[in-house]
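User: Can you write out an input/output pair for a complex, sequences first and structure second?

Assistant: Here is one pair. Inputs:
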Amino acid sequence: MKKINWLVVCTGAVVGLAALLLTMLGNPGNMGFCIACFLRDISGALGLHSAAKVQYIRPEIIGLVVGAAVMALAGGEFKARAGSAPALRFLLGAIVMVGALAFLGCPLRMVLRLGGGDVTAIAGLLGFIVGILAGVACLKKGFSLGRAYKVKSAEGFVLPGVMVGLLLLLLLAPGLLKFSQEGPGASHAFWAIALCAGLVCGALAQKSRLCMAGGIRDAVLFRDLHLLTGFVAIFLVVLVGSLLRGTFHPGLAVQPVAHHDYLWSFLGMAAAGWGSILLGGCPLRQLILAGEGNGDSAVTVLGMMVGAALSHNFGMAGNADAMTDGVFAPGGVGTAGRIGVVICLVLLAVISLANLHKEERV
Amino acid sequence: MIDARGYACPMPVVMVQKAVKDGAPQRLEVLLDNPCSVENVTRFAGNNGYTVEVRPEDDDEYTLVLTRKS
């Protein structure tokens, strides 16, 4: 039996525990962490979109990037690199975000939703796996976004610097920002706790290379399960924690910030999975790589923020199911969202085909 | 020799995997420039019947020498 990488398992467990803690302390249900939702909230707080219910500077995101940067600097792994198809990466970041927000969650939140008993997320998981398989097929055919190159250190500090700037805005000039008065954006843990949770998880994710998409990709492509153990650890910790807290509500109806539009959950997460493989990692991994000095991942994160803004400005994001006065109001993905997801899948096919290369050797 | 410098994971491992599948070479040198790729290629090679010698080079680069176990 292959050796278990306990650092990956421990990182998954800590991310799961942090997610449970953040939910207990105010974050929305099954949303201790959600890279897609939290980048969307930050976009809203900066006025990039005007969806009033999802606007807040999420300190978790700041912590993840800065925690990764600190760990990378301490470990001698901070390297400023860039130049690997930045415009395509920006577009892919936006595509991943449109897909994830149709589903209502990034791959990490998908696991948290499953751990909390949200059976509707299974459609997203299946779509995510199919998207990853499509991405793996592209890798096997020679897909590559090309090499990155060493650049001046300042390039590597851009996203960590932006994150520190966001924290300063949140603490010193909140009047410049938009904040939700109700809805998911108004539900959040105290900023310092959220920041610390992000810092710890970011540092551990940098060291362990935790990646939701990478876990399934490596299992399929290399028969290597070590990253997948982190994925499983998050699920198990959240499952056990939810059972102990009495917040495990298995079922299909009215799950926290979720809908039961299975086909479009499937297709949205297929786009997110496929895009993540082409990018080399899931949204969480992009934040961590940007913290390590990767300018291409920083551009990807900015693409994700723009993708989030477009999702809400054009009505493409999914709407959650709701229960009002005992009356069930179904949510789902509207016409604009369905068109958006289909366009994303077409773009992924075009980008994949346009970047097939023959093997490079010297 | 495979020059995987500048490529983000999983590309270096994909390149090594292709070389191994194409001809199972007795010896293969891989140029890398980040620790994550070194870990991943080392793990892949170890799982596929190779011993790995990691030679740190100048300028944060590495040469990995993969030798097929007899």
